[in-house]
Design brief:
The complex is a heterodimer of chains A (475) and B (414). With 475 residues, chain A is mostly helical. Chain A has 17 helices and no strands. Chain B has one domain (2-409). Chain B has 14 helices and three strands. By secondary structure, chain B is mainly α. The chains are: A mainly alpha (475), B mainly alpha (414).
C-alpha cells in the first residue's frame, strides 16, 4: 500500500506546475552557476601562476632576507572544488588598501547557496499543502475511509515528496558537472568526487528535513492558505534570520576586546610600560653596584671612563659589571613585558575563539548553517580549512626561517664583511610552500556531527509531523 | 467607491491571522536589527575613539557613519585607519576579523530586512487579491454592483499598501526615535534627510512588490498557483539575479586580483629599499618612485574596477532589488560610489603628506594636516545613480500595476 501512495505522490508532484517551474529554474541556475564559477576558477588559477612568476622574477634581482617576509607569504591557491563551492574564499581582503567590496553588497552564488536557500524554499512549497491540501480536496477522507493506516500515509508522503524534490536537483547537478568536466583546465580528484558525494548526501538530508517540516506545518493547519503563511515565516526565521543574527548574539553574550584595543594595549606594554620597568630595574641594580664600586658614582665623561678603564683594572671590572647589569635589567624588562604582551594577545585570541565557537553553536539552530558548515568543511573551503591552512603555513614559515638562518650563516662564513641580510641572494633552493588539501578522512570526521544534526532535525520534524497527522481531523 | 474598497481591504486585513503574524514578525525583526546594528555601530565608534589620530598625525580615519545602522554597506571598509608611513599607506582593519562566522552570512541591517523579508511580506499581501475574491465569489457580486474594475484594483492596491506601510512606518519611526534618544548616536540634519529618503525608497520598494503580487494574482485562477509563481519570482529577483550578476560581470571585465595588487606593492617598496641600501639614488627619489608606482597601480585598478562595478550594476539592475540596494546604500553614504570617492581622497591625502615630508625632511611627525572626509553632497549622490535607481524602481512598480490593470480588465470573474 505504501508503494501505491508513494507512487501517487510522485506522479501528483511531477505533473504539478511547481515541479515544472522548479525543474526549469534549477536547470538554468545550477549550470549557469557552475559555468560562471568554473571560469572564475580558471581565472584565479591563471592569476595565481602569474603572481608566482612575478615573485620569481622579483627574487632573481632583489631577493634579500631582511624583507623577504613581505614578499614570500603562504597563499591559499584556488582549489578545483571552487568550481562548485566558493566558501570563505571571497576576495574582500579588508587588511589591504585595494579591497574588493562587491561581495559585501551581494554574496556570490554557489552550489551551497542554491541548496541552502532555493532548495529549502522549494521543499516547503512542495510540502505546505501535503496534508491540508488533500483535506481541502476531500481526498484525505476517502483515503482514510479505505482502511489505510495513518502512519503509512505520512511516511509515504515524506518519502514521495523528497524523491520528487531530489530528481530536479540531481538532474541540474549532473548538467552542471558536465560543464565542469568538459573544461580541460579542471582536474577533479577522487577526494573531490567523494566530497561531492557526501555533500549530495547532506543535500538529501537537508531537503528531507525541510520537507518533513513542511508536512508538519501542513498537518497543524486546516487551510493551505494559512499553512503556506506559517511555512514561509518559519523559513524566513530559520534560513534568513537566525544565521545572520548568530554572530551578533554571540558577540553580545561573549564579548571580545576589539583587535584595535588589543593592539593598543600591546603597544603600551611594549613601549611606555617597558621603559618604566627597564628604568626601575636598572636603578635597582645600579644601586647595589654603586654600593660595591664607589667609582660608578663619579660622573665621568665617556672619554674619561675609557681612560680610567685602561689605567685601572678594578674600575674596568666596575664599568663592565655596570654595563652588564644595565643590559640585564633591560633584557629582564623586555622579557617581562614580552610575556605580558603574549598573555594579552593569547587571552584575546582565546576570547575570539570562544566567541566564534559560540556563534557557530547558536547558528546551528538553523539547518542552513549546519549544511553550510558541513559543505564548506567537506570541500575544504570553510572554517576548518582556514585553521588547517594556518597550521601548514606556520610549518612552512618555520622551515623557511631555518633555511634563512642557515643560508645566512653559510654566506657569513664565506664573506664576513658583507651585510648578507640586506644583500640580494640567490634563493632558488628555498623550501617552497605547497598547499595540499587536508586528508579526506579528517574532513569527513569534521562533517560527521553536521550529518548527525541534520538527521536529528529531520527525525524531530518527522516525528512532529507524524504525531500531528495522527491527531489530524480530516473532516 | 475606491475609498470604500480601500477601507474594506484595511478592515479585512486588520481582522486576519496573516496580518498579525506578518506585522509582528516584521516589527520584531526591525527592532532586533536596530538593536544589533546599534551595538555594532557603538563598538566601531569606540574603536574609532582609540585610533582617532592625535592632532598632526598623518593618519586618515573616517568615523563610522550612524546611517550604517540602517544600511551598513561598505561602512566597515570606510572606517578603517589608513596610516601614511614613509613608504605608503598601511591599513588597520576593524575588529570583525576575529570571528569568522560573520563572513558566512549577510549582515542583518534594516536594508536586509526590507530587501528580503518585507518584499516577501508585500507579495503575501498581494498574491490572492483577485484570485481569492474570485474563489469566494465576492468579485462577481462587487462587479454586479456596477463598481468599475479600475476602482476595485486601485482600492485594493491602496488598502493593502496602507495596511502594510502604516504599521511598518510606525515601527521604523519608533525605532529611529529610540535611536535618537541615545546620546552616542547623533544624526546631522543632512543625515535625517537621507534617512527620510531611504524610508521613501523603502515605500516605493514595497509598492513594487505589492504590485507584482497583484499582477500575478490577476494572471492566475487560483491563489495556490499564484503563491507558488510569486515565490519563484521572488527567489530569482532577491537571491539569484543580483548575486549571479556580479559573477557574470567578472567574466567580462579583467580586474587584477586584490592579492596580486598587494603583492606588487610589497615588491615595489622592498625593491626600492634594497636599491637604496646598495647606494643607488637618494632616499627622497626612492620614496617618489614607490609613491608613483603605487598610485599607478591604484589608478589602473580603479579604472578597471569601476568598469566592473558599472557592468555588474547594470546587469544586477535587471532585478529591482539590486537597484534598491544601490540607491539606499548610496543615499546612506555607505555605497560603492562613496567608497571609491573616499579612497581617492585617501590617496590625495597620502600624496599631500609625502609632498610635505619630502619638502622639509626634518619635519616632526606631528605637523601634518588633518584628514577630513566630506561625504558627497546628497544632490551629487542623487544625480550619480541614486535617482536613476529610484526612478527605475518606480517604473517597475507602475509597470506591474499597469499590467495588472490591463489583465484585470479582461479577467473572467465567473
Amino acid at each position: 500500500m505504501i508503494r501505491t501512495i508513494v507512487r501517487k505522490e510522485i506522479l501528483g508532484n511531477i505533473l504539478s506546475f511547481r515541479f515544472v517551474v522548479t525543474l526549469a529554474l534549477l536547470l538554468i541556475v545550477v549550470p549557469v552557476t557552475t559555468f560562471v564559477l568554473t571560469n572564475d576558477y580558471l581565472k584565479k588559477v591563471a592569476d595565481a601562476s602569474l603572481r608566482q612568476s612575478e615573485i620569481e622574477t622579483y627574487l632573481r634581482s632583489y631577493g634579500h632576507f631582511n624583507r623577504i617576509g613581505n614578499i614570500l607569504k603562504a597563499a591559499q591557491p584556488p582549489i578545483s572544488f571552487n568550481t562548485l563551492v566558493r566558501g570563505l574564499s571571497a576576495d574582500v581582503n579588508m587588511a589591504e588598501f585595494d579591497d574588493d567590496p562587491l561581495p559585501v553588497m551581494f554574496p556570490l552564488v554557489d552550489l551551497v547557496f542554491v541548496v541552502a536557500i532555493l532548495m529549502s524554499l522549494v521543499a516547503l512549497i512542495f510540502a505546505y499543502d501535503a496534508v491540508s491540501g488533500e483535506k481541502e480536496d476531500g481526498t484525505l477522507k476517502l483515503m482514510l475511509a479505505n482502511g489505510l493506516a495513518r502512519p503509512k500515509v505520512v511516511l509515504a508522503k515524506v518519502a514521495g515528496g523528497a524523491v520528487t524534490l531530489l530528481v530536479p536537483f540531481l538532474m541540474s547537478l549532473i548538467v552542471g558537472l558536465l560543464v565542469i568536466l568538459v573544461h580541460p583546465g579542471v582536474d577533479w580528484k577522487a577526494a573531490d568526487w567523494g566530497a561531492l558525494g557526501l555533500i549530495t548526501l547532506g543535500t538529501v538530508l537537508y531537503v528531507m528535513l525541510f520537507y518533513a517540516l513542511g508536512v508538519f506545518i501542513s498537518a497543524r493547519h486546516h487551510a493551505s492558505s494559512a499553512s503556506i503563511m506559517t511555512s514561509l515565516l518559519v523559513w524566513v526565521l530559520l534560513v534568513l534570520v537566525v544565521p545572520s543574527l548568530s554572530p551578533y548574539i554571540a558577540s553580545f553574550l561573549s564579548p571580545t576586546p576589539s583587535r584595535i584595543q588589543v593592539e593598543r594595549e600591546a603597544e603600551r606594554l611594549g613601549d611606555t610600560e617597558r621603559d618604566d620597568l627597564g628604568r626601575k630595574l636598572e636603578a635597582e641594580r645600579m644601586r647595589e653596584l654603586v654600593a660595591r664600586y664607589p667609582v660608578l658614582n663619579e660622573r665621568l665623561s665617556e672619554a674619561d671612563q675609557k681612560r680610567l678603564m685602561v689605567r685601572d683594572p678594578a674600575a674596568r671590572a666596575a664599568f663592565e659589571a655596570a654595563t652588564k647589569a644595565k643590559q640585564g635589567a633591560w633584557d629582564e624588562a623586555n622579557r617581562v613585558q614580552g610575556d605580558k604582551i603574549d598573555a594579552v594577545r593569547r587571552a584575546a585570541a582565546q576570547k575570539e575563539e570562544a566567541q566564534t565557537e559560540l556563534a557557530r553553536t547558536i547558528s546551528m539552530v538553523s539547518p542552513l548553517s549546519v549544511f553550510t558548515y558541513l559543505a564548506t568543511d567537506l570541500s575544504s573551503t570553510g572554517l576548518r580549512n582556514e585553521a588547517y591552512f594556518g597550521r601548514i603555513s606556520g610549518v612552512w614559515d618555520r622551515e623557511f626561517w631555518d633555511y634563512a638562518q642557515k643560508k645566512i650563516a653559510d654566506l657569513q662564513a664565506k664573506d664576513p664583511a658583507t651585510d648578507w641580510w640586506n644583500t640580494a641572494v640567490d634563493m632558488s633552493d628555498r623550501p617552497r610552500f605547497e598547499y595540499r588539501e587536508e586528508a579526506f578522512g579528517g574532513r569527513i570526521q569534521a562533517a560527521l556531527p553536521g550529518f548527525l544534526l541534520l538527521l536529528g532535525y529531520g527525525l524531530v520534524f518527522f516525528v512532529l509531523a507524524y504525531v500531528s497527522f495522527l491527531k489530524y481531523d480530516v473532516r | 467607491m475606491t475609498g470604500t474598497i480601500a477601507r474594506k481591504e484595511i478592515l479585512s486585513n486588520l481582522l486576519s491571522y496573516k496580518f498579525y503574524v506578518v506585522i509582528l514578525l516584521a516589527a520584531a525583526l526591525v527592532a532586533t536589527s536596530f538593536f544589533v546594528m546599534t551595538r555594532d555601530y557603538k563598538e566601531r565608534l569606540a574603536d574609532y575613539g582609540l585610533i582617532r589620530p592625535k592632532p598632526g598625525e598623518p593618519i586618515a580615519v573616517n568615523p563610522p557613519n550612524p546611517l550604517s545602522i540602517f544600511a551598513k554597506g561598505l561602512d566597515e571598509a570606510m572606517a578603517r585607519s589608513f596610516e601614511v608611513g614613509p613608504t605608503g599607506i598601511s591599513v588597520r582593519a576593524g575588529q570583525k576579523s576575529g570571528n569568522t562566522v560573520f563572513a558566512f552570512f549577510p549582515t542583518p541591517d534594516f536594508l536586509y530586512i526590507v530587501r528580503v523579508v518585507l518584499s516577501l511580506i508585500a507579495l503575501l499581501f498581494g498574491f490572492d487579491q483577485v484570485s481569492r475574491e474570485k474563489e469566494a465569489g465576492t468579485l462577481r457580486q462587487m462587479l454586479a454592483n456596477q463598481t468599475s474594475r479600475s476602482a476595485i484594483l486601485i482600492g485594493k492596491w491602496a488598502g493593502n499598501f496602507l495596511s502594510l506601510a502604516v504599521p511598518f512606518l510606525l515601527v521604523t519611526t519608533l525605532g529611529t526615535a529610540v535611536l535618537g534618544l541615545d546620546p552616542d548616536i547623533r544624526f546631522s540634519a543632512d543625515q535625517v534627510l537621507r534617512l527620510a529618503l531611504i524610508l521613501v525608497l523603502t515605500l516605493v520598494y514595497i509598492a513594487v512588490f505589492l504590485s507584482l503580487g497583484i499582477l500575478v494574482s490577476t494572471l492566475t485562477r487560483r491563489a495556490s498557483s499564484s503563491v507558488v509563481i510569486l515565490l519563484f519570482i521572488w527567489a530569482v529577483l532577491v537571491f539569484i539575479l543580483p548575486n549571479l550578476g556580479t559573477l557574470v560581470a567578472r567574466q567580462m571585465v579583467d580586474v587584477p586580483s586584490v592579492r596580486a595588487l598587494s603583492e606588487k606593492r610589497q615588491q615595489v617598496w622592498t625593491r626600492e629599499v634594497l636599491l637604496r641600501i646598495r647606494g643607488v639614488g637618494d632616499w627622497p627619489s626612492h620614496i617618489k618612485t614607490i609613491s608613483a608606482e603605487n598610485d599607478a597601480l591604484e589608478a589602473d585598478y580603479r579604472v578597471k574596477f569601476d568598469r566592473l562595478v558599472k557592468l555588474s550594476k547594470n546587469i544586477n539592475r535587471i532585478s529591482p532589488v539590486a537597484g534598491f540596494v544601490y540607491a539606499a546604500t548610496e543615499i546612506a553614504g555607505t555605497g560603492i560610489g562613496e567608497e571609491g570617492a573616499f579612497k581617492s581622497e585617501v590617496v590625495r591625502y597620502k600624496n599631500a603628506v609625502l609632498g610635505k615630508r619630502l619638502a622639509s625632511p626634518d619635519l616632526k611627525s606631528s605637523d601634518y594636516p588633518a584628514f577630513l572626509y566630506r561625504y558627497r553632497p546628497l544632490g551629487r549622490v542623487l544625480t550619480r545613480g541614486a535617482l536613476f535607481d529610484t526612478a527605475w524602481l518606480a517604473v517597475c512598480g507602475i509597470l506591474f500595476f499597469a499590467l495588472s490593470y490591463f489583465v484585470f480588465v479582461r479577467y473572467d470573474v465567473r
